[in-house]
Each structure stands twice: as structure tokens, then as C-alpha cells.
Amino acid sequence: MKKPITLPLNYTGIVTVTLLFLFLLMGCGYQMTGKETHVPPGLTSVAIPTFKNQTFEPGVEIPFTQAFLNEFIQDRRVNVVGRAEASSVLEGVVKYFRIYSVSYDQSGFVVEYQTDVVLDIALKDRAGKVLWREKDVSESAWFRASSSGLISEANKQAAIQVAARLVAGRMRNRFFYNF
After folding, report:
1. In the Cβ-directed half-sphere of 169, how many Cα atoms lie within 13 Å?
2. How confident is the model over 10-22, as pLDDT tens digits?
3. How far apart are CA 5 and CA 137, in angstroms?
4. Stated pTM of the model
5. CATH of region 38-177, choose from 3.40.50.720, 3.30.565.10, 3.90.1150.200, 3.30.160.150
6. HEC sequence for the chain
7. What residues does 110 pair with on adjacent strands?
8. Environment class of 70 (CB within 10 Å of its CB; exposed 0-12, middle 13-18, buried 19+)
9. How confident is the model over 143-162, as pLDDT tens digits?
10. Residue ranges per structural domain of the chain
């Protein structure tokens, strides 16, 4: 039976390895990020009212409103508050929503659908002055079709939520970094 190979590390060796590790870590330019922002001073809170829906898809504005709320609440660089207490209001309008088939099986049945959505987003100060506006923000998501209507609807809702999270993440970045 072979004896395992071990490296003897005394106190000096441990201190040397630790100092080397710390030196390399500092040399890599490691720093804590995530709190830096380019938001104007005084913009410390935001209200995110329910988005408007200008499409014929009932309730499509709800996942987008929820995704934006989640993004800003989890980020914590500004407080998400009610409209009366907010220093700014982030408003959204779902302008376009479409579902169409993108792939078929050998029998001609739909296998996958794609959802396309287009929104307008605006950040306004308390007085209603537009601080920035992003028009025609678009996102797409695919979902699997099913012979069960309930499963197809659940897949569609999941695809809408994915699209909503992607848009909300992009707009949160725009809010904090490209103001």
C-alpha cells in the first residue's frame, strides 16, 4: 500500500502562501461593484405603477410590472415606494404583443411558438417631467406547444415572464448606468 504524499507546511509556509494569495488578489484589480450609479442626485426612490396594456392580450402588462418591481426591489439602490412618496415614476406601456408558430412536426402540427412584445418605458420626476424615455423596447421568447391547452397556456405565460425579466434587467441597467 502506497503512502499518500503530503507537503509539509509550517507556520512560515502558511503565512507565505496567504500573503502571496492576497498580493495576487490585489493585483487582479478585484473590487466590490454594484453600488456605483449615474442617477442624478435626489433621485432616491421610484414608483412603478401597473403598466398600461395597449394590446389585445389580456393581462400581459402584469408580468412586466412584476418583473420591473422585482428588479428594482432586489437591486436596493433606490427605494421602491408608492407614487405619493416617490421622487420618480417609472411608467411602461405594452404597445405590441404577438404570438406566432415557428416550428412544426412532420404532421404539420405546431411544435414551438414565439412571442414578441414591444414596450415604451419612461422615467419621470415628481412633477411629471420626462427624465429619460426608451421607445420600442422589444423582446422575444419561444415556448413549446402542447396538445393540452392548459400546458400550452402555462408555457406561454412562462415565456412572457422570461421576456419580462429580460426587459426589466436591461432597463434597470439603463436606469443605473446609462442615465
Report:
1. 7
2. 656 665 666 556 5
3. 60
4. 0.76
5. 3.30.160.150
6. CCCCCCCCCCHHHHHHHHHHHHHHHHHCCCCCCCCCCCCCCCCCEEECCCCEECCCCCCCHHHHHHHHHHHHHHHCCCEECCCCCCCEEEEEEEEEEEEEEEEECCCCCEEEEEEEEEEEEEEEECCCCEEEEEEEEEEEEEEECCCCHHHHHHHHHHHHHHHHHHHHHHHHHHHHHCC
7. 104
8. middle
9. 999 989 999 999 999 999 99
10. 38-177
CA nearest 40: which of 126, 167, 169?
A: 126
Q: What's the pLDDT at 83? A: 92
Per-residue pLDDT at 179: 59
Give me the residue label for grid cell 412633477. Answer: 127
Question: Which three three-digit cell numbers place residue 16?
Answer: 507565505
State the chain's mean pLDDT as an integer.
Answer: 86
